[in-house]
Amino acid sequence: MYKAMLVDDESLIIEGLRNIIDWERLNITVLETAENGKEALKKFRQNPVDIIITDINMPLINGIDLLTQIKEIDDNVKFIILSGYEEFKFAKAAISIGVEAYILKPIDEEELTKSLIEIVNKLDEAKSSKKINLKKDTIFKGILNNTATKQDLIDSKEKMKIKLEDSLFVTSILLIKDGFNTIDFKHIEKTEVLYDDYGNLILVNSFEKGTTLSQIKNFYTEILEDIINKYGYDVLISIGKVVDDINLLSKSFKVSNLVKKNILISGFNKCLTEEDLVNDLDIYFENELNEINRLIIDGNKEEIDSYLDEILQNNILTPQHIYEFAVKVLILYDNLKIKAKIDNEDAGVLGSSIIKVLNFTTIEDIKKYLKFKLNYLIDHILDENIKLSPIVRRIVKCVNENYNKDLSLKGLALEYNVNTSYLGQIFTKEIGIQFSDYLNKIRNQVAKDLILNTNKKISDISKEVGYLDTSYFYRKFKKYYGVTPATLRELKNY
Known about the structure:
Oligomer: single chain
CATH architecture of the largest domain: 3-Layer(aba) Sandwich
CATH topology of the largest domain: Rossmann fold
Helix content: 40-55%
Mean pLDDT: 82
Distance between the termini: 41 Å
Structural class: alpha/beta
Strand content: 5-15%
Shape: globular
Low-confidence stretches: none
Radius of gyration: 30 Å
Strand order of the largest sheet: 2-1-3-4-5
Number of helices: 21
C-alpha cells in the first residue's frame, strides 16, 4: 500500500479527510497526520510517505514551503494542495513547483478521489519502471564485472537506450564533489545510467563505428559543461577504453576506474582519458614504510606528520602511487594495532578504511586521514614496559610461529604442564581475548598479507594459514576485516 500524510491546522478537516475517502480501496494507508508544516516535515523525515495532502495556509511552515522542502528531500513525493478561494494565487505557485492537484475548500469527495486515483496510477507506473530499470541495471553491472553478457540483456527483452550491435562502447565514471541530489540524463542519447557501490555515476554509451576518441571526448565534455552550468556541481568524468563489443565493457570500466585516480592531480571539472594518465614507475615504498614503523614505535607524532607530508608532496608520484602508498600505510597500521593488542575499534575497520581512502579525491584528505590513524595508534599502543607472564609469552610465541598447525589451548596446556582452565583465564586476562580468537586473528592477519602481496589462490591461502574449510575462512576473515578475501584483493586494484 502507498503511504499518505494529511496536514491541516484544523483537526476537523483531517478527520473529514480520513472518513470521506475509501483509502483501502485506493491502495493507500494514512500513515501520519500533522497540524502544521513544521510537524509534517519532522514526521516525514522519520517516516517518509508517498503522498501528502496539505493545506496552504498554516502556522510555522506553510504548505508551499513544506512542498519545497520535502521535494528537496525526495522529488518523487506526490502533493495535493488544499486551499480556499482567496489563496488561489498560492495554489498556482504550487503547481509550478510540482504539485499533482489543487482542490478548493470545501473539499469535493469525487474530485479528491479522482486526483488520488491518478496519483496511484503514476506511482504504479513508476514502480513498474523502477523494477525494469533495476533488472537492467543489474545486468549492465554484471557485464562491467564479467558476470553477465550481451545475451542476458537480449534475453531480458527490456528496452535499451544504447545500440547493442555494430557499435563502439565506452564506460565513463562521473565523480561529483560533495555529492549530488539529481541529474537528468533523459536528453542524452544512447546512454545507460548506473550507480556504483560508492555512490558515483556510471555512464554506458554506444557510438557509431568510426567515431574517433576525440569525438567521444567532446561528447563527454558537453555533458560535463551541461552539468556545471545547469546544476553548479564540480565534476570529473573519467572516460574508459573504447571497445567494439559490449561483452568487453569490463575492460573499458577497468580503465575508467584507473583514469579517475588522476583526480588527485587534475582536480574537478575535466574530462580525462587514458592518454591523460601520468607515466607510472614501479615504487614499492619499502624504505618509507620501515621509517614510518620506526617513528610509530618511537611515538613521534610530529615527525610522522612531517614525513607523510614529505612523501605525498613528491612530484614524481602518480595518483596510483599515492593510493597504493595509503593502502600500505593502512595495512601497516592494522598489523601494528594487532601486535599492540588494540581491540577498541569495530571489526572490519581495515576494509572500511581502505574503501574510504580510495574514495578521497584530494591529497590533503588522504594525508589528514593517514595522520589521524597513525596518531591514534601511537596514543593507544601499550606501554612497552608491560610484560606478559612467561607462560603467556610462550603461548603467544607458539601461535605466532605455528598458526598454520592444529593448535588448541588444551594441547598447549598439556605440553606446558599447566591446568587448561587456569591457562585460559590468564591468557584472556593478559591478551584481552580468548585463545581461539587470538589464533584466528593471527591466521587472518597472515592471510591478509598473502592476499594483498601475492597472487596465490584464496583457497590455497586458506589452507596455508591453517583453515581446511575455505567457507569457514571466508566467514572469519569478513568478521575481522569487514570484507571478504576476494573483495579485499579487488580493492587493492581499485
